[in-house]
Amino acid sequence: MIVDLQIHSPTLKRRVKTEFVGMDGNRSLIFRFPDENKWAGLGGAIYMNNTMIVRCILEDETGEIVAFKVKIIIVITKPSKLIFTSLPESLQSHGLRTEQRAQTRIAALLIDSQERSHIVPCLVRDISNQGCMISIGRDAKGVRPIVDQELELLIPNSEGDDISLSGHVRNKKEDDSRHYFGIKFCDDENDVAKLLSQLLINID
C-alpha cells in the first residue's frame, strides 16, 4: 500500500511517498525508507524517536483518507532500508467523496470504446451518478484497462437488455486477489440516474 509520510525536524519539513510493508506482530509498523534519489536529505528527519504523520487512502468501499501519528523506533539498512515505528494511538479519517455511493456486486463487461471490442469481465463494487468502482480477478481472462482509457460498461438488467455507461479510468490499485479501477462517467448525471433506476439501485 502506498502511503504519504509527513516528516519534520529542526532543519527539514517534507511530505514524501513510500510503501507500507507490514507489521511486526503487534509491536510495530514497517515502512520502506523513501527513495532518496527523489527526496534527498531524509536521513536528517527520519531517525529514532522522531515522529511522523502517516496518511493513506482507503478506496475499496469507504472512500476515506486515514491519518495517524507514530514514533520511529529504529531505521535499519540491511537487507533493505526500512523504518520501524510504534503503533498509532489513535486514527483520524474523513470521507473524500462528495456523492453517496450504493454498494453493489453486479457482474458487468468492459468494452474498449475506441476498438469496440470486449476486453474483460468485471464486478461493479459501488456506483453513483458520477462514477463507479469495478474489480477484476487476477486470473480473469482479458485485457486490463489502463488509467485514462475510455471504456463502456455493459450491465445486464432484469429485462435482459444491457445497460451501457461510458466513462474514463481515473485510478487503479490491487490486492492479492483482485485489481480495482475507479471510473468517472461521461454520461449526464440525470441519464445515469435513470439507468440506475432500471437496475433498482437508489443513490440516497
Describe the structure.
This protein is mostly beta strands and 204 residues long. Helix content is 5%, strand content 54%. The longest helix is centred in the last third of the chain and has 10 residues, at 189-198. The model has no long low-confidence stretch (mean pLDDT 83).
What topology emerges from the helices and strands here?
Layout: E1 2-8, E2 13-24, E3 28-32, E4 51-58, E5 64-76, E6 82-85, E7 92-95, E8 102-112, E9 117-127, E10 131-137, E11 150-156, E12 162-174, E13 178-185, H1 189-198
Antiparallel strand pairs: 1-2, 1-4, 2-3, 3-6, 4-5, 5-6, 5-7, 8-9, 8-11, 9-10, 10-13, 11-12, 12-13
> How many helix segments?
1
Q: Strand percentage, roughly?
A: over 45%
- The H/E string reads EEEEEEEEEEEEEH
Taking pLDDT < 50 over at least 5 consecutive residues as the criterion, the unreliable ranges are none
Which shape, going by the Cα principal axes? Answer: elongated
**Could you estimate the helical fraction of the residues in percent?**
under 10%
Over all CA atoms, what is the radius of gyration?
Answer: 21 Å
Oligomer: single chain
Label the structural class: mainly beta
